[in-house]
Amino acid sequence: MKIIKALNIIRMKNIFHKLFLLCSLLVWAGCEKDGKMITVSDLEDTNLVASLKNVVLTKEKSNAIALSIAWTPQTITISNPNMGISNLLSTYLVVSLSEDLSDGVESLEESHSRAYTGAELNTIAKNLGAEPDEATPVYFALKSYLGANMEPVYSNVETVKVTAYHIDMTRGFILDKDGVFTDNFLYSEAADGNYKGFVGAVAWYNFFLKEGDDTVWGNVGEDGNEFRITNDASSWNMWYPGFGGCYYTELNTTTKLWSALYIPQLTVSGGISGEMTYDRANNRWMLPFSSNASEISIRLTGEGKQYNFDSGTTDDAAVTTPVGFGGTASNLLFGTQASDLTLSVPAGGEYTLMVDLSNPLQFVCTVSSGSEEPEEISKNLWLSGIDDGISGGWTFDNYLVLYDEEKLGYAGAVNVNSLWGYKFYTEQDWSSALGFVDGTAESGTFSAESGENIPAPEEGLWLFDVSMKAMSYNLVAIETVSYAGFHDDWTMIEMTETSVSGVYTSDLEIRFGSPWGFKLYVNGSWDHFFGGNEGNLYYQGQGITDDASVAPGNYTRVVDLTKGTYTLQ
Questions:
Q1: DSSP annotation string for 199-227
Q2: Which of 128, 163, 198 is the last residue of a domain?
Q3: Domain residues for 47?
Q4: Is the same domain home to 247 and 200?
Q5: Are 552 and 514 a contacting pair, CB within 8 Å?
Q6: Dist CA 495 CA 309 (whole Å)
Q7: In angstroms, rounded to a whole number, what is the distance separating the alpha carbons of residues 467 and 398?
Q8: Neighbours of 318 (CB within 10 A)
Q9: pLDDT tens per residue across span 399-433
Q10: Number of domains composing the chain
């Protein structure tokens, strides 16, 4: 402390002299006429205070404020009040494990205080080298500059004993496009920021990755850089290519790159043979087989398409790559070559060979009794009773379309005219009915146990968004439909409503294909949109790029939200 104070006195004198000379040179021409010398005062003393002297951090309270640092405002004055000096002063808060503030981290401060959540303070302590579960002195001080290339001035140093908790950096948790945790994670065996594992993704699946220290990684947000990542707050979602299925995923926070190896098929050869079926929901491959042997030796091979920084998500640029599994049945090793795997089989009969990739710490291959196939997810969810005011009865004419396999989300536009309410149906079978549990006509929950009709909203065109995973529904009244993205112009242009409910038109001149395609937006909201391809609309789908395949000219675009179709005429 005495050393720092002594240095400050010397530095303050140097700053004063240098700043005096600097200001003299800058304003000499102005002062020459009236003979007045403009001077700048020295920095006033700054008192820095910590809210606590001893902080014990826990994972359970990681989001709460754990420590606050505050300081008195620093001021400098100039003899001529008409001259600005706001850009002269720069202030940094320094945090270090050394009392002399060496090897510390600095943050530029524009206010007079700083509050740290438990997670933020824990991450700083970890990065500085503090051992978890040990009370470690952490030093805080203010470091200020009067202009560029000047010696810094330090405040007093505050000492806070911080007991950090252990941060598991072996797991990188996959968040969905909204930043919500999923059940999936990637694994970094050496805890070095290089995460690996298999992900069962739908086409164009959007995600973030969150490390144990709460650092969140996403895409850099630059066109042509789909596989470059950043932890900036402004990052985009990362996204998989346009094929749904099994992806071996690697994400490296050191190189700031990630890659996705798409595996469309896995072949079994040896004691049994066949093409396995991928169960995306459970991240596993399956093959039913019959055998009388007590032991079988097999090989698991395939051919993948490697997407990375060089290829982007362009299918033709993806590199064809052989894949295979080695190791043992209880601890599979993934690579480009396969080796023999030996498995025990019970008494003769029907069995299922299963390759489970859901746990990145241990991939396993097992044999179970009985023939098992992946459960198929229904592509539609039917609504009956939603239009009996039009049709005269309960039918299966109206349905929603699956758009999010992860959340089992179904959506679509429905022309509502219901007399008694309605129910959801998982099949075109009256026994699959799902009835009302709680809520209103616009949002609520349902279940298979309830026999009560779901209350219908008022007559008109409505956007339905239903989650079969959460067993909930949300409705939005459709008032306008606009398009954006055409000719890479993302200004929303409202379409013309026709006399047919759900049908909208717009006249347009096609000059060139849209790079990202266009989308349809409900009520001018970026959150409620339709994309599509080949004449079909999909809620929250990719941009429609069909305009790139037609000759330049004048066209009329017609969309039918209730049928989920679009045309260019």
A1: EEE-TT-EEEEE-TTS-EEEE---TT-TT
A2: 163
A3: 2-163
A4: yes
A5: no
A6: 38
A7: 17
A8: 21
A9: 999 998 878 999 999 999 999 999 999 999 999 99
A10: 4
